[in-house]
Structures are given as structure tokens and as C-alpha cells.
């Protein structure tokens, strides 16, 4: 039986600004739908040389600001990827982690003969409950007279985005593809004065008839098979930052819907992907662009799904003592001596960064009688917090993803006995 899962996507050209305080308000709106996955695609993130170097070692300010909002909502940063000013970050609920496999990132440079990354795409693909999904954040060439160049860049990205995973060798091969970003398509043959006159009267249809992307979707084959929700919001570019006024600079840009979200479904069955919301966020006036977001409902076979790694219930771990953990691995699962098990506070942001401690998995340690594997966490590396909740996660270096998450548990003091609640490992975590 298929369950309806929620997917929130947001795109914003931030024009090199720092994360504003109101970013939390934007993210809270995205989370108001209680999505299972939340994808943020930014363009023109400040990418000065020293910032690029820093980003190789620590998260950039935008990712840190987003993590701070997502963490209390128990959304984990699944993965992030960056191409110069393009930033793509994917968050998910904890209980979905063991079912997100074969994560792979890819980037395509389209700026300056394909050598410069100021324009292009940053993409993440994954398998989720037996379906392949691809999320791609784009920033294409600007200006109204560069319509054909944008279409050529589209072809370049589709040809270049290759993944050597199963039947998804190319971005187009996935069951679901989401393309979003500053696609930079403009209004064809409409003056600024005429566009503003229509907008004053809230007449969007005359502008939509001149929209280059809408015409491309209808009459050309670069985006064959892709769809877009009905646009019911004013153009998202170009504003005087900090105002609701369209460009009053000497350039006098014609308003346009440069910021878009497209999708394609290729499942060979009745449609199981549905867009429920598509709108802009006009109060986020910090950049010359307005953010655009969409909410989708996706039906996937969640019921009966079993993680590749299953932890035995953790009952009585005591502060100051070694902790022994047992788990089983599904047959034919690819393992490695570089796989590891991490201990995490229940409220954490990143699998690769936020562990309290970890141990290497030992693929040779399984008991012949039970088929169980066992590892030991040394007492000196364990937390002495008897109030926080924790989980164990098994990370596969081969598949570059989490294969199992334990039920939440607590460490108990030497003088206190506490029964741990048993949860199904792939069900939502219960938070007090």
C-alpha cells in the first residue's frame, strides 16, 4: 500500500546577501505542511575565494541558518552540494533515513564556455522506497535576448548530468525529476510600461502569454515531459531590494517570472505525484528576487518497508559503563570495513558531522547462531547526560547513506532503573 509523502521545494536567488533573520519565517512556512522531505535551492550565494575555501571545512552561513531552524523540527540534513553560488540542501525526517539509498551529487558548469561555475546546475539524486528521485537547482543565462542560449544550456545540463547507478544513468532516467532555480526566462516582446500597467490591474494572463518558459514548455522540446503548476503570483524579478517596487534603476528591467519549479514523472503507471501548492513569498524582500516554493504529494510504498540494518532494542545503557549494541544486516547488503555506527542526540542536524562518538562496524563479527553483529562503545567516549534521548545510526561507506536507525533511548544513572520504550525502527520518533 502506498503512503502519501510530502515534498516541499523552495528556490531563491539571494543576490549575495547574508541570511536574514526572517529566513526562519520562510522555512516555517515550508514546514507548515509537515513535509517528509524539504529541499532548498539557492542561487547567487556569496562565493568569494575565502568563502569557498571555508565552505570546504565548515558549513556556509546559509546552511548553518537553515540547520538551526530544521534541527528543532527533527529534520536531518540528508546531503548538500554546491557549485560556486549555487547551493542545494536536502532535509528529511529521521525515520526516512534508512530508506534513502544511493545518494549522489553532480554539478554542471555552463558559465564561460562551460568552465566557470557562476551559472549551471547542482543536483542530488537518490532512491527512496524503490523509486528514483532527482532534485536539480539551476541558474541559467540572464537577459531577454538570450532565450536560445538558455535552451542550449538546458540541453547541456541534461546531457552532462550522468549517474552510474542502476537504470538511472542520466538525470532524465529517474522516476521523478524536479528542476528549480533562477531559470532566467523573461517576457518576450513586452515593454516594462505595459507589464506594469497590467500588474497594477492584477492582470497576470497577458504577461503569462509572453512568458518564454511557458512558450518553451508548450512549443519546444527542451523540457519535453515537464510540467509546471499554475502561476497565480506576480513576477518575482526584478525588485529594488527592501521594497515592493519593480526595478527603478537605470536598467529598468521588465518584470519576469525568472524563479520557477518544474517536475517530471516517469513511472509507467497512473500519476502518483501531485502538486498542491505553488506560490511566491512577497514579504521576503531582501533580494531583488522573491522566493518561490511548491508542495507536492508523492505516493510511495512505505508500508512494510524494512531497513537493511535493524538494531536490537536498546534497554539499559548506564552512564560510565561500556555500551554494547547488537544489530542485523539484510542478506546481500554491501558492507565494508569502513562502515561505522554513530551515537547521536535525538536532535541532530547531520549524520556525517553531529555524532557524539562512533565505532567501526565489523563485518566479520556476526554470531553464527543468531546472525547478529555486535559492537562496543567505550565508556570514556560516551555522554554522561542521563536526560537527553539518543539514537544509533549505521552509515554505509559503500552506498554513502544511512542503512539503519535505532529506536530512541536514554542512558541511565547507576542508581536509576528505567525501562526503554520499544519503537518500530522505521516509524516516527516519539518526542516528549
Question: Your description of this structure?
Answer:
This protein is α+β, with helices and mostly antiparallel strands and 432 residues long. The model is unreliable at 417-432 (pLDDT under 50). It has two domains: 3-300, Endonuclease/exonuclease/phosphatase (Deoxyribonuclease I, Chain A), CATH 3.60.10; 309-412, Immunoglobulin-like, CATH 2.60.40.2840. The protein has helices at 23-31, 49-55, 61-70, 147-160, 192-200, 205-208, 212-219, and strands at 3-13, 37-43, 75-83, 86-93, 100-111, 116-128, 131-139, 162-165, 168-170, 176-182, 259-265, 273-280, 292-300, 309-311, 317-318, 323-329, 340-345, 357-360, 373-377, 390-396, 401-405, 411-412. Strands 3-4-2-1-13-12 form a six-stranded mixed β-sheet, with helices on one face. Strands 5-6-7-10-11 form a five-stranded mixed β-sheet, with helices on one face. Strands 18-17-20-21 form a four-stranded antiparallel β-sheet, with no helix packed on it. The protein is built from seven helices and 22 strands. The two termini are 30 Å apart.
Amino acid at each position: 500500500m502506498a503512503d502519501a509523502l510530502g515534498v516541499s521545494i523552495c528556490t531563491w536567488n539571494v543576490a549575495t546577501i547574508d541570511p536574514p533573520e526572517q529566513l526562519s519565517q520562510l522555512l516555517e512556512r515550508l514546514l507548515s505542511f509537515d513535509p517528509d522531505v524539504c529541499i532548498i535551492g539557492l542561487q547567487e550565494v556569496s562565493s568569494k575565494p575565502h568563502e569557498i575555501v571555508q565552505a570546504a571545512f565548515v558549513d556556509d552561513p546559509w546552511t548553518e541558518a537553515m540547520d538551526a531552524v530544521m534541527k528543532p523540527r527533527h529534520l536531518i540534513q540528508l546531503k548538500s552540494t554546491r557549485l560556486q553560488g549555487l547551493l542545494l540542501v536536502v532535509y528529511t525526517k529521521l525515520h526516512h533515513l534508512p530508506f534513502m539509498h544511493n545518494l549522489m551529487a553532480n554539478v554542471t558548469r555552463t558559465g564561460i564556455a562551460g568552465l566557470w561555475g557562476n551559472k549551471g546546475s547542482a543536483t542530488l539524486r537518490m532512491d527512496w522506497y524503490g523509486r528514483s528521485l532527482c532534485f536539480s537547482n539551476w541558474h541559467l543565462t540572464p537577459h531577454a535576448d538570450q532565450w536560445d542560449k538558455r535552451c542550449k544550456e538546458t540541453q547541456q545540463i541534461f546531457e552532462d548530468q550522468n549517474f552510474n547507478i542502476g537504470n538511472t544513468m542520466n538525470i532524465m532516467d529517474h522516476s521523478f525529476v524536479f528542476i528549480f532555480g533562477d531559470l532566467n526566462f523573461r517576457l518576450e516582446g513586452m515593454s516594462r510600461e505595459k507589464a506594469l500597467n497590467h500588474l497594477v490591474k492584477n492582470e497576470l494572463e497577458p504577461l503569462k502569454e509572453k512568458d518564454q518558459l511557458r512558450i518553451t514548455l508548450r512549443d519546444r522540446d527542451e523540457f519535453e515531459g515537464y510540467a509546471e503548476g499554475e502561476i497565480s503570483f506576480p513576477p518575482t524579478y526584478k525588485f529594488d531590494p527592501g521594497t515592493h517596487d519593480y526595478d527603478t534603476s537605470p536598467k529598468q528591467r521588465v518584470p519576469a517570472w525568472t524563479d520557477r519549479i518544474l517536475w517530471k514523472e516517469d513511472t509507467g503507471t497512473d500519476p502518483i505525484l501531485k502538486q498542491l501548492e505553488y506560490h511566491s513569498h512577497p514579504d521576503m524582500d531582501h533580494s531583488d528576487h522573491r522566493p518561490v516554493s511548491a508542495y507536492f504529494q508523492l505516493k510511495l510504498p512505505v508500508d512494510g518497508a524494512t531497513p537493511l540494518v535493524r538494531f536490537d532494542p536498546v534497554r539499559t545503557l548506564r552512564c560510565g559503563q561500556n555500551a554494547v549494541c547488537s544489530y542485523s544486516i539484510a542478506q546481500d547488503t554491501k558492507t565494508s570495513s569502513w562502515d561505522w555506527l554513530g551515537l547521536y542526540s535525538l536532535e541532530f542536524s547531520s549524520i556525517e558531522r553531529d555524532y557524539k562518538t562512533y565505532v567501526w562496524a565489523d563485518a566479520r563479527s556476526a554470531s553464527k547462531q543468531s546472525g547478529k553483529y555486535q559492537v562496543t562503545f567505550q565508556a570514556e567516549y560516551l555522554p554522561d547526560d542521563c536526560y537527553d534521548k539518543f539514537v544509533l545510526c549505521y552509515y554505509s561507506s559503500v552506498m554513502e547513506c544511512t542503512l539503519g536507525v535505532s529506536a530512541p533511548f536514554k542512558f541511565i544513572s547507576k542508581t536509576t532503573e528505567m525501562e526503554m520504550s520499544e519503537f518500530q525502527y522505521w516509524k516516527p520518533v516519539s518526542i516528549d
